[in-house]
């Protein structure tokens, strides 16, 4: 394997708007090239997290190496890197792109270009990748391939007349895609004899092998025993194993050389030593400068995560560290809450990212979590000139010391058919959006641009968008900057005691509405006690909404039929168990799920 | 030491299921009923063999002190079936001469002659209150024969499921009888010499006002039955009532004002009125929902609260015997043939649950069952059974509950629920489970 002809390698990824069939095409390619027989194929091979299969989305970029015998009679090595389709995970796309030389752009023949189609194309163009358009789902009765081809040419400005028309689901015309990959995606370049220069595009932690680094070699080569150095972290180690990606498995090999995509394991102790985006070089013969890597992404949404069982705090820290290893955008630091005890303030790219991490912590690490309402990062300008980045509403300084506050704003692009333009614009107005422009892509579809405060979109904007467009609108955004805004901190008092974990920052104009909804929701969640419990939403000392959990007056078990005492005891046990899953705030017991239920207050 | 025991026989049949009923009961053909009684008889014999003849045991169980035939509607059974059951029991077990032998009856199963005409007139509004399709005529005939069979079998206490003295309420509940039918039967049973009768009543019915409830109570109390059970209606899942009143139930659970169900305050005041009215008529509350004239407390029920041994027969029946709790299987399809067809194997398939009680469970039961009784629990007695356990497990809980006025030491060493504690007994009793 030492002398692989670079001209026989194709490193590419597949990009698409969510649900346009990216993972299905990847499956088909893997199947066609005979890596797995269709009987061995588990649908969507590359989505190997249970979570990904269940949700039908790709979260993590995944790589696989396949051999394709082309019509020219030659065998080609394809390194295929699957990418996520959700706006939250653009950074993953960006990572994958950095390891590729070209991108297959999948567009749904019925839906055409969507917001993330554009976003992903722009990312790919940023990385100087050649784009190979493919029209998928031509089996649908509503498919209009020619219209979509024209759209690609008009909107994106790339040649698409000979784009393969395929049905990944039915396996139609997949070979045309493979042939075009060979013909149109350039072979990698790079000198195998030069000093090693490899980009880390992903990594994961394996309990047997330790840290497994996924990399793309730009220059040089690496083999077992090579002493390597991480250029950013400075960590030095000896290579233990190198190899390539089979479908769902790692296949060791002798050497990786320039142009190849593969993995490296080394005698690395600390998971933090391998940073995704870093450049690996030889310790004894370093390259002159690191690869540009790619734009570091910063979290946009923060929330508190607490173990339901306080004793699991160290376990939560371990789990977060391991997840962070291949999810550079996940950030966390310890914090304490009066209500919830010890936990972490965690930063995420968006609400989906938050949910995914939460689910992974719960499933893969068996942790029971309490999550507080997500917050964006506010800039607090104090009268003394200090500027604070506020990620936890509880830490808001005394309002008397605040000169003004700023909130993050995103540039949002919403693509929608013309009949829904009105209702989508109404939605954006309600969410304090600032209208920018509207572009008709064709007579019936438009791209609407708005600047929107991030905190208006992190909760339920996507759901609202879908419900107001009967599922047709697509959405993408990127952080634009900060804008001065009239913000207040809304506190929740339960039985007259402020519950820090429930405080949040909100625009003054929507404070009343949010406060009212919070109180209503909490009233639903908090069980009745022997005394009446007022639930109040307050700004400073001013109460703006109130609900009451009535005192429990009657709770009697039914008759004991035929002396069935066991059944009676089970009912009492259930009651007692319920008490255990509560957080004690003052003399009120609050169920843990109450802290999370306020995450999603319906659109209204 | 000879300990007395109780027997429970479950008859899971009724003429028609009531709208609020989630018990193990169903209408059935004569063949099924007969087959079930055949099975019961074998189970009675089997358990006498395994429970009563434990040789060499130092605490051989003594005589049967109470028998309770419950349901469902045991009075649905043909006279001969009751005779067979009681005959078997007497053959297999030693019954005290003074044993309390109770049976639950439904007034709608004791129709007088020419039922058809009478039945047509029972509605109060001139409209048929229910149809007779599907109702087994034999279920409601043979009043004299049935009563003779009960008397001859030694049944000396009857528990009549009336629920309400208001025909509209009876109709809503899906009962198969009117108040007038009940009255006629009540007097008839008195004439026949039954001198220990309970009447079951239910408060907190949909649309019921306190005045309605008071009127039912007064009508019944003035008849002077020896015992009155007065339960608050609980809307159980998987009943027609649950489907119908689901929203109201949810409102009430949150402490709100339901539309047709009484709210919690009404429920409580109905409960409080029950005690007041019945005490004017000479009844005393001895358990959360049970009232009696002095000396007529139901001995079988008290056995449950005091953790006396009892053996249950029939589907879903529970037993407590030598610190072990058993629960029979609940599915009649599995039960039929268990003894009559599968000899030697039945013991394996009879129980859906067997639990050997450890010290902790015994203590917990002692507490949460004991506190259902108005006399509450006696600490000396508890100490005797569980030396040192009170200090270790309950002293702190008791003083906490007492400080919240939910428990009280009403005389030295005797504790009971306060009136407030009774209203939320479920909550208070959950503290009797040890951490």
Report on this model:
The complex is a heterodimer of chains A (604) and B (435). Chain A has 604 residues and is of the alpha+beta class. Chain A has 14 helices and 31 strands. In chain A, the strands form seven sheets. A six-stranded antiparallel β-barrel of chain A has the order 6-7-13-10-9-14. In chain A, helix 3 (90-98) packs parallel to helix 4. The longest helix of chain A is centred in the last third of the chain and has 18 residues, at 508-525. The termini of chain A are far apart. By secondary structure, chain B is of the alpha/beta class. Chain B is built from 17 helices and 15 strands. Chain B is globular, with a radius of gyration of 22 Å. The model of chain B is unreliable at 113-136 (pLDDT under 50). The A-B interface holds A 523-524, 528, 530, 549-566, 568-569, 571-573, 575-576, 579 and B 8, 10, 23-24, 68, 70, 231-232, 234, 236, 254-256, 264-265, 267-268, 288-289, 303-304, 310, 312, 316-320, 325, 327, 353, 355, 361, 364-365, 368-369, 404, 422-427, 429-433.
Beta-strand content estimate of chain B? 15-25%
Tell me which oligomeric state these chains represent: heterodimer
Mean pLDDT of chain A: 84
Shape of chain A: globular
Classify the beta-strand content of chain A into a percent band.
25-35%
Per the principal axes of the C-alpha atoms, what is the gross shape of chain B? globular
Distance between the termini of chain A: 61 Å
Q: Describe the strand arrangement of the main beta sheet of chain B, using strand numbers.
A: 7-8-6-5-4-3-2-1-9
The radius of gyration computed from the alpha-carbon positions of chain B, rounded to a whole number of angstroms, is 22 Å
Q: Taking Cα atoms only, what radius of gyration of chain A do you get, to the nearest Å?
A: 27 Å
Low-confidence stretches of chain A: 37-45
Structural class of chain B: alpha/beta
Total number of beta strands of chain B: 15
Total of DSSP H or I helical runs spanning 4+ residues of chain A? 14
First and last CA, distance of chain B: 33 Å
What class do helices, strands and sheet pairing of chain A give?
alpha+beta
Strand segment count of chain A: 31
């Amino acid at each position: 394997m030492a002398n692989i002809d670079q001209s026989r390698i194709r490193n590419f990824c597949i990009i698409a708007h969510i649900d346009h069939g990216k993972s299905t095409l990847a499956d088909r390619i893997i199947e066609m090239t005979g890596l797995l027989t269709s009987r061995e194929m588990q649908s969507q091979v590359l989505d190997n997290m249970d979570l990904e299969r269940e949700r039908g989305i790709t979260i993590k970029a995944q790589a696989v190496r396949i051999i394709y015998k082309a019509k020219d009679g030659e065998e080609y090595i394809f390194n295929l890197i699957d990418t996520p389709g959700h706006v939250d995970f653009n950074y993953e796309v960006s990572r994958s792109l950095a390891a590729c030389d070209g991108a297959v752009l999948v567009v749904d023949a019925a839906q055409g270009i969507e917001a993330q189609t554009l976003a992903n194309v722009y990312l790919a163009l940023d990385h100087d990748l050649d784009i190979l358009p493919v029209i998928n789902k031509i089996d649908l009765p509503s498919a209009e391939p020619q219209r979509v081809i024209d759209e690609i040419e008009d909107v994106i400005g790339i040649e698409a007349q000979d784009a393969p028309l395929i049905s990944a689901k039915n396996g139609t015309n997949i070979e045309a895609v493979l042939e075009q990959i060979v013909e149109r995606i350039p072979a990698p370049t790079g000198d195998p004899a030069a000093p090693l220069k490899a980009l880390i595009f992903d990594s994961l932690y394996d309990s047997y092998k330790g840290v497994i680094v996924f990399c793309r070699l730009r220059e040089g080569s690496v083999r077992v025993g090579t002493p390597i150095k991480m250029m950013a972290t400075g960590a030095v180690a000896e290579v233990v194993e190198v190899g390539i990606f089979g479908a769902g498995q790692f296949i060791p090999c002798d050497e990786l050389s320039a142009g190849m995509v593969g993995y490296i394991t080394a005698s690395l102790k600390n998971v933090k030593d391998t940073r995704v985006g870093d450049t690996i070089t030889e310790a004894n013969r370093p390259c002159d400068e690191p690869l540009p890597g790619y734009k570091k992404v910063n979290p946009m949404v923060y929330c508190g995560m607490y173990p339901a069982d306080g004793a699991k705090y160290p376990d939560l820290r371990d789990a977060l560290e391991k997840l962070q290893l291949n999810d550079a955008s996940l950030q966390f630091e310890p914090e304490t809450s009066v209500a919830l005890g010890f936990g972490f303030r965690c930063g995420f790219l968006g609400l989906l990212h938050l949910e995914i991490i939460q689910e992974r912590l719960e499933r893969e690490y068996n942790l029971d979590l309490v999550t507080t309402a997500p917050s964006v990062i506010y800039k607090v300008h104090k009268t003394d000139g200090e500027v604070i980045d506020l990620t936890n509403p509880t830490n808001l300084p005394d309002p008397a010391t605040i000169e003004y506050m700023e909130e993050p704003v995103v540039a949002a692009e919403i693509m929608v058919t013309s009949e829904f333009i009105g209702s989508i614009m109404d939605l954006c107005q309600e969410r304090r959006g600032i209208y920018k422009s509207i572009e008709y892509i064709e007579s019936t579809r438009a791209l609407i641009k708005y600047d929107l405060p991030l905190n208006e979109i992190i909760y339920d904007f996507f759901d609202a968008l879908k419900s107001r467009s009967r599922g047709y609108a697509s959405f993408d955004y990127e952080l634009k900057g900060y804008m001065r805004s009239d913000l207040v901190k809304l506190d929740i008092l339960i039985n007259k005691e402020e519950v820090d974990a429930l405080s949040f920052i909100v625009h003054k104009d929507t404070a009343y509405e949010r406060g009212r909804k919070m109180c209503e929701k909490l009233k639903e969640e908090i069980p009745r006690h022997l005394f009446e419990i007022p639930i109040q939403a307050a700004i400073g000392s001013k109460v703006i909404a109130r609900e009451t959990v009535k005192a429990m007056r009657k709770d009697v078990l039914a008759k004991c039929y035929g002396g069935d005492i066991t059944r009676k005891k089970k009912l009492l046990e259930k009651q007692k168990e319920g008490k255990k899953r509560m957080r004690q705030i003052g003399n009120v017991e609050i169920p843990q799920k109450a802290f999370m239920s306020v995450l999603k207050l319906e659109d209204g | 030491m000879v300990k007395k025991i109780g027997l429970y026989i479950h008859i899971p049949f009724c003429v028609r299921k009531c709208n609020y009923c989630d018990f193990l009961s169903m209408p059935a053909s004569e063949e099924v009923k007969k087959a079930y009684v055949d099975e019961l008889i074998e189970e009675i014999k089997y358990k006498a063999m395994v429970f009563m003849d434990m040789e060499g045991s130092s605490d051989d169980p003594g005589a049967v002190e109470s028998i309770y035939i419950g349901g469902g509607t045991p009075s649905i059974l043909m006279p001969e079936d009751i005779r067979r059951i009681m005959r078997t029991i007497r053959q297999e077990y030693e019954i005290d001469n003074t044993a309390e032998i109770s049976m639950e009856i439904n007034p709608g199963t004791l129709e007088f002659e020419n039922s058809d005409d009478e039945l047509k007139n029972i509605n109060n509004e001139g409209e048929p209150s229910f149809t007779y399709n599907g109702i087994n005529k034999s279920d409601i005939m043979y009043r004299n024969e049935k009563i003779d069979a009960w008397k001859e079998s030694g049944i000396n206490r009857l528990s009549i499921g009336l629920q309400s003295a208001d025909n509209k309420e009876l109709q809503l509940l899906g009962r198969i009888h009117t108040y007038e039918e009940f009255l006629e039967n009540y007097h008839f049973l008195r004439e026949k010499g039954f001198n220990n009768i309970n009447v079951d009543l239910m408060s907190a019915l949909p649309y019921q006002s306190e005045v309605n409830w008071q009127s039912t109570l007064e009508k019944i109390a003035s008849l002077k039955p020896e015992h009155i059970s007065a339960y608050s209606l609980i809307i159980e899942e998987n009943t027609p009532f649950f489907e119908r009143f689901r929203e109201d139930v949810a409102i009430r659970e949150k402490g709100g004002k339901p539309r047709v169900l009484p709210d919690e305050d009404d429920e409580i005041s109905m409960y409080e009125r029950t005690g007041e009215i019945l005490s004017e008529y000479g009844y005393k509350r001895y358990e959360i929902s049970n009232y009696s004239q002095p000396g007529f407390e139901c001995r079988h029920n008290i056995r449950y609260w005091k953790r006396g041994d009892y053996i249950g027969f029939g589907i879903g029946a529970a037993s407590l015997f030598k610190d072990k709790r058993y629960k029979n299987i609940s599915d009649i399809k599995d039960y039929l043939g268990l003894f009559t067809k599968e000899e030697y194997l039945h013991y394996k398939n009879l129980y859906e649950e067997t639990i050997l009680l450890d010290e902790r469970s015994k203590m917990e039961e002692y507490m949460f069952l004991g506190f259902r009784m108005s006399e509450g629990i006696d600490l000396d007695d508890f100490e005797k059974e569980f030396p040192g356990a009170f200090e270790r497990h309950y002293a702190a809980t008791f003083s906490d509950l007492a400080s919240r006025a939910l428990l009280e030491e009403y005389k030295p060493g005797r504790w009971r629920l306060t009136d407030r504690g009774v209203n939320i007994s479920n909550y208070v009793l959950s503290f009797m489970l040890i951490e």
